[in-house]
Each structure stands twice: as C-alpha cells, then as structure tokens.
Amino acid sequence: MKPLLLSLIASTALAGTAMAQDAITGFNIGILGGENAQDRMTSNECFRKYVEEAIGVPVKLFAPADYDGVIQGLLGGTIDMAWLGPSAYAKVYLTNPEAVDVAMVKTNLDKTYTYYSIGFARADSGITSMDDMKGKVMSFNDPNSASGYLIPRVELPQSGYSIEPGEFYGDVKFTGGHEQTIVAVKNGDVDAGVTWADGQGDWEDGYNSGALRKASDAGLVDMNDLVEIWRSKPIPEGPIVLRRALPQDVKQSIIDLTMGLIDKDKDCTYNIAAGETAGFTEVGHDVYETMIEVRRQQDGM
Predict the structure, then answer these.
(1) pTM of the model
(2) Of 90, 91, 151, 279, which has fewest CB within 10 angstroms of its CB?
(3) Which band of pLDDT confidence, cut at 50, 70 and 90, is reported for residue 88?
(4) Span of the secretion signal (predicted)?
C-alpha cells in the first residue's frame, strides 16, 4: 500500500496457556508507511494516546526502517496489530497462516476500500505517459509493497513495459519507500516512480488519501509540479490485522477504538489514514486471496 502502515508491537506476559488484558505490561505502536520516521511518529501520536487509554498500559511509538520489520514482528509474535499493505499481508499469510487474523480495512469517502498504484513524473519533464519512459530511470519503493512494486511488477510488463533494467527502462531503482520515491521524482533523481493513492478527489490535492496526499499536506511537493502517467487496476486496501494469539479483550478494545475513531476524532483519523476517509470497516481474509496467489507465484512458493 503503501501507503502509511500502522502496527502495534506488544510486550505481553503469559500465564500458562492463557493471556489476559491485565497481564499486558506495555504496547509499542509501530508505524510503517511513506513518511520519514519523525513524521510517522507525529502523525500517530494521537492514536498512541487513545490506545494507552483504551488498554490501560504504557504505549510507545516505533517506526521500523522497512516493511519487513513489521512482517517479521508479526511472525515472531512481538507485533500484535498492523495496518499492512495487501502484499505484506500475503507474505505473512504464506509464511504462517496462523500468525494473524484480518480485522478491519480503511475506507474511502464513498465507502469503497480500493486504491491504485499511480505512476507519476515531473510535469516539466515532457513525460506524459509510460510510453515516454523508454530508456529513462524508473523507481519502485519496497519489494514488500503492493502499489510500490508487486502490482507494477505484474501489470507493467503486461502492457509491454518490462521492469528488467535495460529492456524498456534505461535503469530501475528502489528508493525504499513512498515518500522517498516522491522526493526522488520531484528532485529529478529519477524520471518517474510509483506510489499509492485512492484515486478519488483532485490531483492538485494528491487525491483524497494516500502517499501523494501526505506529501502534499506536508509541503514536500506541489502537485502541480507532477503529472500522472500510469494507473493500475483497483487494488484492495491493505488490512489491519491482529495477532491471533492476543487475548480477546485486547482485540476487542483495539477494534472498538479503531472502528469508532472517525466519530471520536476526525483529525486523528485523517492523520493515521493518510488523508480523507469514511473510517474503518470489517473485512475478511477472502478479499486478499488473489493477492496471496500473485505473491505466491512471485516468491515461487
């Protein structure tokens, strides 16, 4: 996705085989997304406070360096909740289908929960479509990002744009994240890149939500300086997952908090959802079965 990713990293104490909420001594909230670490911490401070209030233990924020930090935390049992991109969820599920359960998904203003991989370039570059990228430098984000790599990796070659360096693009680079890609394109370090957006609203605002909206809000880029050159098919928004071994009362506290956040604090919801949203709604594993199969084929599993 993507786009801003939430994760709750919990320190829990076990009593025999059962866990209880009063046995949890602390939560660390990890956030993985398109912003730099400090901006992610700032955007999610409001959510940190609400979580601390809801579960009654000290809560800290943690911003991992890459997607795999959250993935491995979920698999290892140190991360209890995460807003994953669909590709990252697929990797968790394929590695251990018992590790997490799908709980919720972020919705757009029209109540849908899809987004797009958006290809973009500088408006003054003369690049107006992907055809113009022949022989130029293309950038992707993180290998575990759906919009930032997996979906373009599948769809671009289907349209004749091989992502192997030298076959269509002159070179292909990984920036490490959505914000890094946006800044690299803006600065002219690469000719074009991909990122995520809901595709709703106005381009001038960075659409209603997504990495472009966050970058525009932060003053990192004037959207009038960029142009869209490619758009993927709709992608199911990444799920908020809960570690299966969590005690039920903790799960319910976090679900209630997140589902009700839009009514409790719209500004906080805007911050953690990377822009305008109708809030969060329940979703099931079946939504991601196609993405899991694509990831399975990519990873040779």
Answers:
(1) 0.88
(2) 279
(3) very high
(4) 1-20
